[in-house]
Amino acid sequence: MKTRVRAVRPWALLALVLLLASTCVQAADEQTYGAGRRRRRSRRHSTAAAPANIMVPITFLNSSVEKGAVCMDGTPAAYHLDPGSGAGNNSWIINLEGGGWCNNARTCKFRTRSRHGSSDFMERQIAFTGIMSASAADNPDFYNWNRVKIRYCDSASFAGDTFDKGTGLYFRGQRIWEEAVQHLLSIGMASADQVLLTGCSAGGLAAILHCDQFGAFFAGRSTTVKCLADAGLFLDAYVFLLVDISGGRSLRSYYADIVYMQGVSSNLPPTCTDHLDATSCFFPQNIIDGIKTPIFLLNSAYDVWQIEESLAPNKADPSGAWRACKFNRSACNASQIKFLQDFREQMVASVKSFSGSKSNGLFINSCFSHCQSELPATWNGSPAIQNKGIAKSVGDWYFGRAEVKAIDCPYPCDNTCRHII
Length: 421
Prior knowledge:
Elements: H1 10-43, E1 55-60, E2 78-82, E3 91-96, H2 105-111, E4 125-127, E5 146-150, E6 162-164, E7 169-171, H3 173-186, E8 194-200, H4 202-209, H5 211-216, E9 224-230, H6 237-240, H7 250-261, H8 270-273, E10 295-300, H9 304-311, H10 323-327, H11 334-350, E11 361-365, H12 376-379, E12 384-385, E13 388-389, H13 390-398, E14 405-407
Parallel strand pairs: 3-5, 3-8, 8-9, 9-10, 10-11, 11-14
Antiparallel strand pairs: 1-2, 1-4, 2-5, 6-7, 12-13
């Protein structure tokens, strides 16, 4: 007796193909995620460099919501942790994410629709690069440390602490900072031999503001505690009589709004607020001389964010005379270059007293850049001052291999720069 084989209808065959394809894609996605986790575990048993492109998953601080440690929209704070290994298993880098600020209801409300105001919009996995890299070749001194990035969603450099009833916005950066560090202490950082607090831009300013607070968490312990601020040296035009191109003081006015709106005053270093107003104490050069914890300042003397947003903001340049220059250094005329050289001189002057401390470190180059510690090309490549790059300079300072007080010659003398404008 012959068995009858029914013909497969075309639509059924198509459905089967789609189902199999969907299953394969899902399996591939799960395998990729699982493989990433296996790579991190295996790294604990080897001193070999891990792949530089490992994606690090997010962790939400749900337990801290009831303590008010929340993003501007009330969603939980978050961080990413890539565990240490081998000799670095008991050392920690805490990186405070940057991302600008907001100074009024409109701009702050807008940020709640982004990762800078809500953890709902944060990437679930991010790559760690530069000083956060797991590659021994790219990051020889810190690659095998526990590396943590605390996400930025408060818009006041982790320093505000208030709630705006009118807008329903939470400005709880200080609580996020404190709860995140307490959580990390509870999962192993309390027994650390070495720790480094770092950050870039708004995160660099946060590293300056919180450096001594960070040190206080380890009081009475033998832990080596130091801080690194990358592109956080925002200059106060009022103190240095350095005005923007229209004769105004754009950044001081902007910072004053942030300090007032977000309740920053009570969280600023008392070594500054005991003799200066709160807005002045949001500017690093009024803080750095009073910091007791060793700190390293990494900055460009021609910081492009400050050029574009503080020295030559659009509202100060209605004729557009600076439009070409601030986005392309080669388009600057002689008077504009002179203005930028004056800015450099003010930055160098601002760290004169700071550099007198043997425990502090300094790397101010003459590149048109902003944030250099997390970019592979600038962290462990060029630029260099006296033939020493950034990664080597920071490592030498942290581990006491050499004193590092490097200030570059004025632009355009440095041919090792990686300019971004």
